[in-house]
Amino acid sequence: SNFILANAQGRCGFPIVYCSDGFCDLTGFGRSEVMQKNCSCRFLCGADTSEPVLQSIERALDSRQEYQTEVCFYKKGGAAFWCLLDIMPIKNEKGEVVLFLFSFKDITESRGRSCPGDKKEEKQRSEKQRSKKPGNSHLRAARRQGRTMLHQLSSQFARRDRGEMKINRNVFENKPSVPEYKVASVQKSRFILLHYSIFKALWDWLILLATFYVAITVPYNVCFTGTEDSLSAARSTIVSDIAVEMLFILDIILNFRTTYVSQSGQVVYDPRSICIHYVATWFFVDLIAALPFDLLYIFNVTVTSLVHLLKTVRLLRLLRLLQKLDRYSQYSAMVLTLLMSMFALLAHWMACIWYVIGRKELESNDPRTWDIGWLHELGKRLEAPYINNSVGGPSIRSAYIASLYFTLSSLTSVGFGNVCANTDTEKIFSICTMLIGALMHAVVFGNVTAIIQRMYSRRSLYHTRMKDLKDFIRVHHLPQQLKQRMLEYFQTTWSVNNGIDANELLHDFPDELRADVAMHLHKDILQLPIFETASRGCLRSLSLHIKTSFCAPGEYLLRQGDALQANYFVCSGSLEVLKDDVVLAILGKGDLIGADLGGTEQVIKTNADVKALTYCDLQHIGLRGLCEVLQLYPEYASKFTADIHQDLTFNLREGSEME
């Protein structure tokens, strides 16, 4: 909508307190140029604007009546346009007219682009102007618009098009990550793989899964492949085993072409240096782990347990996992998953060893122990006893499940006794298992506790500060209204910044980096036209003096007579400027309020109250810091002092209204 709102309670004229973006688009005037002007719209007049029509508008305003007319106005650039003007008084709950709603509709097209110089026709039309009755359909629409306009101001602010801001794009362009004179030294071969690339990260996860597969299958095949059934089961996994071996071989090839970080912190791209570094570190471990033992099945070579024992060398690849744990230490869920996986993997290894001990006790032919071992007891319970120390017994599947059950119960607790150690060897292994379990409890579950606490640390900090605030209120016996305002402000600001103090967080960073971060955080205010001619150094200095603030509905940002400390930029929300309970201006997103620096007084007193209508995010630059920066850049100071009047939506300096 193309409309303006004017204060109907002004002592001197009827100043404009709000104008829509549509009105700015239609007339070419900015909001700061329109605010506080008289709503009689004489600033839109030109050579062909009818004076009788303007006088009729002023009479309608004085009598607080509805009015409609067609009038020729002029845009800021001097172009004339015909406008259908509707004036609608808006009353408060007491029936008093507090605002005027002016609605502008461009009817140049419908008039067939009439020549503005036809004064005779315009005079005839002006003589026919009169106050319209409430029954007029257009006025009914205007009345409906007037009733809803104030309720829609917040949405109007949110829909403002920020594309019209004059942006100095050279200021916010991305700086090159590497200086031009060093670009040549960073160029790498197209066949070199970056160790921090997305492909390398995905490849490392694939190798990690393959390593876990090896860590599970190799101990199982070594310990449970003593029968023909288990040998046939091992042959059934030949395809997956060979696929894993091919992955390991391909990983060796990629590692010869993957960059690394030297001890001095430099990324090494030279292929020769990469090869030497890899051979001197992990090459031989990866080579042994990638030996294709499973190809023996293809050539029908008899596979003995010795071959399976050689495959345990592949478990050395788990050392590479320890090397990469630091990379994922910042991801709590990832570390938690890896720790639990390592705990389950350890239980699997212990289960394999527990089964081997039971088999050795059966095959020892010791008449005192062969029939009391845990495997013999398991066979009797499952009604599948061993005959002649080796024939019969439970299936491999049942034996493995029982072994895993025993090791997990021993690692996590003291066991339940249904699968227990009877021989001396089994008891010694059980003692070692419980000691390892105690160590795993300290390492794994201690880390799990720390991770969970870290995940909820922000929530814990919120409750701690909330409790401190409530204790403060209780100790000092603050009244209920003040208590409610404090609690509401704390909860709302926490939801905005999550308890993070940006100034404290950036305090230890170098000034150059802090300035870049500050320019990004405060780019909304730095893109105002007033800063368009400022140099990059000036903007960087200004950005370090800009702070963020927050205002809740009903709270006063400033009160009349206060010493003004800063100029404020509205990032979101809406505020109203009041003086003696009379609305002087309604401010929204993109408005700048404060004072100019043209006066000689050291302390600037405010001439009105500024009160929040909704939740408002604000950015403000302190006047003291602003003056310090302007002293450092005198070539920009004169330009700033001359142009600040045009960019201030409302000047709060005491005495500015007289000027």
From TrEMBL:
Basic and acidic residues: compositionally biased ranges: 110-129
Region listing for Disordered, in residue ranges: 110-141
GO BP: regulation of membrane potential
PAC domain sequence ranges: 67-119
Membrane topology, from the record: Multi-pass membrane protein
Keyword check for Amino-acid biosynthesis: no
Superkingdom of origin organism: Eukaryota
Residue ranges of domain PAS in the record: 1-64
Transmembrane segments: 191-216, 236-254, 297-319, 331-357, 428-452
Protein function: Pore-forming (alpha) subunit of a voltage-gated delayed rectifier. Activates at more negative voltages, exhibits fast prepulse-independent activation kinetics and deactivates much more slowly, but shows no inactivation.
Oligomer status and interactors: The potassium channel is probably composed of a homo- or heterotetrameric complex of pore-forming alpha subunits that can associate with modulating beta subunits.
Entry's family note: Belongs to the potassium channel family. H (Eag) (TC 1.A.1.20) subfamily. Kv12.3/KCNH4 sub-subfamily.
Descriptive protein name: Voltage-gated delayed rectifier potassium channel KCNH4
Species per Swiss-Prot/TrEMBL record: Motacilla alba
Gene that this polypeptide is encoded by: Kcnh4
